[in-house]
Amino acid sequence: MITKFTIGRRNSGDTWDVSSLASNIKWVTDLNFAAGTFTFDLLFDGSFYPQSGDVVEFQWDEQKIFFGYIFKTTFKDKKFSITAYDKMRYLKNEDSFVWPVSTISDRFDTVCKMAEINHKVINVSDYKLAAEVADSKTYFDMLKSGIDSTQKATNQMYYVFANYDVVELRKAPYNNLDIIIGDQSLLTDFSFEKSIDDAANSVRIIKKNSSESQQTTSTATADSESAGDDPKTTSFAYTDVKAHDILDWGKLQIVENAKDKANNAQMKQRADELLKEKNRETYTLSLDCLGNTSLIAGNSVNLQISELSKAGFYVGNTAIIKATHNFGSDYNCNLEMKVNEPWLENSSSN
């Protein structure tokens, strides 16, 4: 049940208890570099008008759930519909910065100071990121670049999370919950999907030469054109790599232009990297379950879904990528789970 729900002016200190006026309360946490979102409807009783920038605080069963600020308000039929974001919203601010060699922990600390938000590094990274220039980028984009590079190098996934009024840098999974979601525990419905829509099993790295007419190919299988180039003086060098599952999926090819000074070995290395990244099915697992405030993005849970196992897929412990909490008398959650090769074990149903 709601144990605190207030809206207050940011500077004056005036505060209103709106717990008896609110409905359709929804809280969303997402690992995809997005601020936590808190939406609700509010009956208008004439006592006050919510204003942009007002502070929203919400607690459920004495647990601190959301602290943030009103960014959007609509009014219709004597009711306000309000959208508030937590402090990560200020990481959408744009800036330009030259990053020295530094860790993602260092960069997180720097951008939070520039965004003027309370923050804390929970899990420290020692991996040194290369120096780079961020020109007119959001702080989220700056962090994403460093987090992606850190993950590729260390196989450790870092993410940003608003722990009430403090923005934190965490490593996923942050908390391995003892909670079991399954046939006999919390689960009310699920959907599972696998797809090769975004997969590739053939990668071609192309190097354009505008001064020669000769064309060289390493297992070349197709041509490429660039509008505006002179066909008489333009040629391409290709470096291709392929996967065996072309026999199963058909040919799914992507192309990338080589860096200007890349040699054949570097082109081959880049092609191998892209193939490793793209040559895979993607899996989507969505769960509907009874509400629990521990089920937030970044934590992991244990799954026991017999129907899914019977269909040939066993998914055990996996992390929550996105969590939507619907507060009310029927408190429930919608979860999007991280399901990929490290988490998915394909077992035969025969």
From TrEMBL:
Q: Which InterPro entries match?
A: YqbQ/XkdQ
Q: Where is this region: Disordered?
A: 210-231
Q: Where is the composition biased (Low complexity)?
A: 211-225
Q: Which residues form the signal peptide?
A: none
Task: Using the record's annotation, list all stretches that form the YqbQ/XkdQ domain.
Answer: 25-337
Recorded superkingdom: Bacteria
Q: Which protein are we looking at?
A: YqbQ/XkdQ domain-containing protein
Source organism per UniProt: Companilactobacillus allii
Phylogenetic classification of the source organism: Bacteria, Bacillati, Bacillota, Bacilli, Lactobacillales
